Amino acid sequence: MEKNNETENKKEVEIETVSLNDATETPVTDSPVADETQKLIGELQDKVADLNDKYMRVAAELENTRRRAARDAESAARTVGMGIAKKFLPVMDACGEGLKQTPDDAGLKSLSMALESAFAQIGIVKIESVGQQLNPQFHSAISVIPADDKNKPNIIVTEVQSGYMYGDTVLRPAMVVVSK
User: Fold this and answer.
1) Is the pTM of this model over 0.85?
2) I want to staple 29 with a disulfide (CB 3.0 to 4.6 A). Which of 21, 34, 109, 160 is the partner?
């Protein structure tokens, strides 16, 4: 008895789907109302396509504007950071010169280490120069000495002033003495 109730409860439902394209496939009669309806349907389809195209273009332009604004904000922040960093380079130089004069000064050592740590945290690194080949992108040769057995040509012998980079941008090139 339970099986009969289960089969009676199961009913099949047939669903018919209709699309906008079905409306255009309906047979056209020669009546003026049918012609006018077909014309109106065509105009509306063109208008929908045109509005969809405009929407897609506006959406793409909005996304481009967002990207451009983010890139500009990042660039402005980077420029401000570089400007501030350039103002601290003379302080770093003064600490270095002070340590050359009094290498045992704990206060200068502490200040120098704190500045180096702060520079490293924001992405400012010192350009290594002594013993390297002269690279005009990173080094500015202010003097030339003759090459000898110890010094090969175009090798940096002495660093007069340290150079620094912020990311891939040179904040200040290193001023160096080069063997020739």
Assistant:
1) no
2) 34
